[in-house]
């Protein structure tokens, strides 16, 4: 980990991510500048699990209006972590 930056920001809880937990896939919002190997290393150290695969997606910003005001949401990065067979992240299973 370079310069002690925070890579995992928070887990993503949605209908799709809860359904993917059955296949051993967990979704996290991550730092925009992190790469797949850094994400894998942090997840393995923090949750004591074996990571098979890391997929990352940059979620683009969207235009939003609130009354007469308009603006954009921020762009962010999502990581989908696939664990080895039989492994789970116990801290996230009861969410």
Polypeptide structure, described:
- The chain is an alpha+beta fold and about 100 residues long.
- Helix content is about 25%, strand content about 35%.
- The protein has helices at about 15-20, 35-45, 90-95; strands at about 10, 25-30, 50-60, 65, 70, 75-85.
- The relative contact order is 0.25.
- The model has no long low-confidence stretch (mean pLDDT about 90).
Q: In which range does the helix fraction lie?
A: 10-25%
Question: What would you call the shape?
Answer: globular
- Average pLDDT score: 92
Give the N-to-C terminal Cα separation.
28 Å
Strand order of the largest sheet: 1-2-6-3
What fraction strand? 35-45%
The largest pleated sheet is described as: 4 strands, antiparallel
Query: How would you classify the helix and strand content by structural class?
Result: alpha+beta
Helix and strand element order: EHEHEEEEH
Radius of gyration: 15 Å
Number of helices: 3
DSSP strand count: 6
Low-confidence runs: none
Topology, please?
Blueprint: E1 8-11, H1 15-20, E2 25-30, H2 36-47, E3 51-59, E4 63-66, E5 69-72, E6 76-83, H3 90-93
Antiparallel strand pairs: 1-2, 2-6, 3-6, 4-5
């Amino acid at each position: 980990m370079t310069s002690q930056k925070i890579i995992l920001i928070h887990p993503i809880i949605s209908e799709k991510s809860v359904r993917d937990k059955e296949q051993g896939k967990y979704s996290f919002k991550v730092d925009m500048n992190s790469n797949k190997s850094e994400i894998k290393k942090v997840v393995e150290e923090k949750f004591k699990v074996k990571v098979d695969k890391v997929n990352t997606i940059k979620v683009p910003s969207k235009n939003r209006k609130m009354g007469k005001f308009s603006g954009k949401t921020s762009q962010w990065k999502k990581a989908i972590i696939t664990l080895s067979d039989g492994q789970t992240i116990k801290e996230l299973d009861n969410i």
